[in-house]
TrEMBL record:
<feature type="domain" description="Mannitol dehydrogenase C-terminal">
    <location>
        <begin position="287"/>
        <end position="472"/>
    </location>
</feature>
<dbReference type="Pfam" id="PF01232">
    <property type="entry name" value="Mannitol_dh"/>
</dbReference>
<comment type="similarity">
    <text>Belongs to the mannitol dehydrogenase family. UxuB subfamily.</text>
</comment>
<dbReference type="InterPro" id="IPR013328">
    <property type="entry name" value="6PGD_dom2"/>
</dbReference>
<dbReference type="InterPro" id="IPR013118">
    <property type="entry name" value="Mannitol_DH_C"/>
</dbReference>
<keyword id="KW-0520">NAD</keyword>
<dbReference type="InterPro" id="IPR050988">
    <property type="entry name" value="Mannitol_DH/Oxidoreductase"/>
</dbReference>
<dbReference type="InterPro" id="IPR008927">
    <property type="entry name" value="6-PGluconate_DH-like_C_sf"/>
</dbReference>
<dbReference type="InterPro" id="IPR000669">
    <property type="entry name" value="Mannitol_DH"/>
</dbReference>
<dbReference type="GO" id="GO:0016616">
    <property type="term" value="F:oxidoreductase activity, acting on the CH-OH group of donors, NAD or NADP as acceptor"/>
</dbReference>
<dbReference type="Pfam" id="PF08125">
    <property type="entry name" value="Mannitol_dh_C"/>
</dbReference>
<dbReference type="InterPro" id="IPR013131">
    <property type="entry name" value="Mannitol_DH_N"/>
</dbReference>
<protein>
    <submittedName>
        <fullName>Mannitol dehydrogenase family protein</fullName>
    </submittedName>
</protein>
<dbReference type="InterPro" id="IPR023027">
    <property type="entry name" value="Mannitol_DH_CS"/>
</dbReference>
<dbReference type="GO" id="GO:0019594">
    <property type="term" value="P:mannitol metabolic process"/>
</dbReference>
<keyword id="KW-0560">Oxidoreductase</keyword>
<feature type="domain" description="Mannitol dehydrogenase N-terminal">
    <location>
        <begin position="28"/>
        <end position="278"/>
    </location>
</feature>
């Protein structure tokens, strides 16, 4: 057994390790939000490039801003930024490699000045983000930046030391502007439609209130490329740590597990160059929108379609749900009849094959992606991934009964008890509000969808309300499986 660190790399057996000299890697990217997805995706692509002898000036400096990031700080410090990435194949085969592209990690509350100066350094040319859907601080219906958030209000105060990603990034850009340095690119890698456009709007909205001159410069000079990112990366468990130890002889405090599939489609809009991502499988394009909508409305919304129904019916893992033909039929019908009609042609993609590939990915028993993870933070996900499908289908006169049923399954799930009478732990920033609304489902069936902050004016759309109420009634009287049977 080897505790993972730079000094033990050469002693590891049965696992690929960085073939490049990490002492020669310099920071070119500062990344906010070092979770499992970033480490299984962007950091992995950079590691591939570095193993080809390229991009050694594009090393990653990870940054954490949340209290929960202290554990990542401590693990990566002990392991010299190294971690094990394990791909789990459906046939039980595991492939592991140690990723070495992250050469530094900073926890912003420890030293915000160091974080700002690292971004302000001329060598930093990209600041990237995986801060989750909720990290962009915008209103789900209006799309406006939330200036009333307590941390934002703190950062906007005169002379405040920044605590938010907005405050830190804008302060770094302010210093670059005053020093005559070109701006870095801000590259979002989050599951949001038009993620770069959203990032541009939110960061410039903050800057307009903090430093108008910087805001003007950002609008004129800072690129915010859109991207589509895809790789199922479940939460790391103690069993995953034990598996890495037993299979590969590595003691890793925070390995990452993922599926074999990975995709990254990235717009080629950068101010100070970029790594040669296309050399390691990234699709670099002029317009990412068709790929982005495909992924958000087929993969991400389908995750929501399976998760509440599956949980209510007694399943706890995505692969269990996708071993049930009733659920598979429902997912494919949603994707084919409701989501796909809202998509434009996607260059180079066979959408029928893509839909079936998604079911195969969800059904991978080795990933053990929990429904609890997929059910979490629904108030950040449903409005961005599923409701646009409903609105577009309403406008075109298309079918919405399955999409409306997914919303109903969320409302039923938010009641906090499954069909076996077992309690459900709701994980959502709006937990209290959601559960209060859902508690009124039987007496006042439209209570849940009358929340305009989440649903806008959908409660005034007769076709949607009718489909929603029909599904919610069936969920209450006959359960999840019978509801899906009725939707065939």
């Amino acid at each position: 057994m080897q505790a993972l660190s730079a000094t033990t790399l050469n002693a590891l057996e049965g696992v690929d390790v960085p073939r490049f000299d990490r002492s020669q890697v310099s920071v070119g990217i500062v990344h906010f939000g070092v979770g499992g997805f970033h480490r299984a995706h962007q950091a992995m692509y950079l590691d591939r490039l570095m193993n080809e002898g390229k991009a050694l000036d594009w090393g990653i400096c990870g940054v954490g801003v949340m209290p929960s990031d202290t554990r990542m700080r401590d693990v990566l410090a002990a392991q010299d930024g190294l971690y094990t990435l394990v791909q789990k194949h459906a046939d039980g085969q595991y492939e592991a490699r140690v990723i070495g592209s992250m050469v530094r990690y900073l926890y912003a509350p420890d030293d915000p000045e160091m974080v700002i100066e690292t971004m302000a350094a001329e060598s930093t040319r990209i600041v990237s983000l995986t801060v989750t859907e909720g990290g962009y601080n915008f209103h789900h219906v209006t799309g406006e930046f939330n200036l009333a958030h307590p941390d934002v209000m703190h950062d906007l105060a005169e002379g405040a030391v920044p605590v938010t990603v907005f405050g830190l990034v804008v302060e770094a850009l302010s210093r670059r502007l005053s020093r005559g340095l070109p701006p870095f690119t801000v590259m979002s890698c989050d599951n949001i439609q038009g993620n770069g456009d959203v990032a541009r709007a939110m960061f410039t909205a903050y800057a307009e209130h903090k430093a108008p001159d910087v805001a003007a410069w950002m609008k004129a000079s800072v690129p915010f490329p859109n991207s589509m990112v895809d790789r199922i990366t479940p939460v790391t468990t103690d069993q995953d740590r034990a598996d890495v130890a037993s299979r590969f002889g590595i003691e890793d405090g925070w390995p990452v597990v993922c599926e074999p599939f990975t995709q990254w489609v990235l717009e080629d809009h950068f101010s100070q160059g970029r790594p040669a991502f296309e050399d390691v499988g990234v699709q670099v394009v002029d317009d990412v929108m068709p790929y982005e909508l495909m992924k958000l409305r087929l993969l991400n919304a389908s995750h929501q379609a399976l998760t509440y129904f599956g949980y209510l019916a007694g399943y706890r893992y995505a692969h269990e749900v996708c071993s049930d033909q009733l659920f598979n039929d429902f997912l494919l019908d949603y994707m084919t009849l409701e989501a796909t009609p809202t998509l434009s042609p996607v260059p180079g993609v066979d959408l029928e094959a893509y839909r079936h590939t998604l079911i195969e990915r969800f059904a991978n028993p080795e990933i053990r992606d929990t429904l609890a993870r997929l059910c979490a933070e629904s108030s950040d996900r449903i409005p961005k991934w599923l409701l646009p499908v409903i609105r577009e289908q309403l406008a075109r006169g298309g079918d919405i009964k399955r999409s409306a049923a997914v919303v109903a399954s969320w409302a039923r799930y938010a009641e906090g008890q499954d069909e076996q009478g077992e309690p459900i732990e709701i994980v959502d920033r709006l937990k209290d509000d959601l559960m209060a609304m859902a508690a009124d489902n039987r007496r006042h069936p439209t209570a849940f969808i009358e929340n305009q902050d989440l649903f806008g004016d959908l409660a005034s759309e007769p076709r949607f309300v009718e489909a929603y109420l029909s599904a919610l009634s069936l969920l209450h009287t006959t359960g999840a499986r019978a509801t899906l049977e009725a939707l065939r």
